Amino acid sequence: MTFSNSHSHTLASPLVLSRRHSLLLLGMGASVLALRPSALLGQTQHSVTAHNRAPDGTQMAFAPAILRIRPGESVRFGHADRGHSFQSYDDTLPDGARSFGGGVGETIDVTFRAEGTYGYFCRPHQAMGMIGFVLVGDFTRNLAAVRAASAARPGPMIARRVAEYMGEIDRIGRAEGLI
Ligand SMILES: [Cu+2]
């Protein structure tokens, strides 16, 4: 099976599409099909983009680098510039979560069902601190593990980015009464 520039990581399919919609979808290309279900259901479609220079001026960064969503919501990981990728840190996935990722330049759609904090990185620029986090539902469930693993990743550029992002994640947790 070939996907032109996109594929779906939706973990399960609770979708109940009408027959008419199903037939409509069958007539579309696979890449389009992968993007349709959330649109049909009217769910929030979040997006993260990879940048050489993010809107806030940060070099080699995802925007937003920290994304807050509800369980079951989907995120499109796309590209403002060439040469980046998205790959989950599989050593700290929440319980029941599946890894996700794509090749350089590949746009992926991921539906996040398990609550927790998901860390991910750009393969070509991980050492430059190009990492990000998706906070799903009660994201504190595995936050201690994510914090420890993130702090242990090698390199001063990652360390600076981890310190900044963890501070922001803690602020979100406190504001929501989760921490
Ligand atoms: Cu990159």
UniProtKB/TrEMBL annotation:
Q: What range(s) does the Blue (type 1) copper domain occupy?
A: 55-136
Cofactor or coenzyme needed: Cu cation
> What domain of life does the native source organism fall in?
Bacteria
Q: Where in the cell is it found?
A: Membrane; Periplasm
A single Pfam family it belongs to is: Copper-bind
InterPro entries in the record, alphabetically? Amicyanin/Pseudoazurin, BlueCu_1, BlueCu_1_BS, Copper_blue_Plastocyanin, Cupredoxin
* Sorted UniProt keywords: Copper, Electron transport, Membrane, Metal-binding, Periplasm, Transport
PANTHER family, sorted? PLASTOCYANIN MAJOR ISOFORM, CHLOROPLASTIC-RELATED
Q: What is this protein called?
A: Plastocyanin/azurin family copper-binding protein
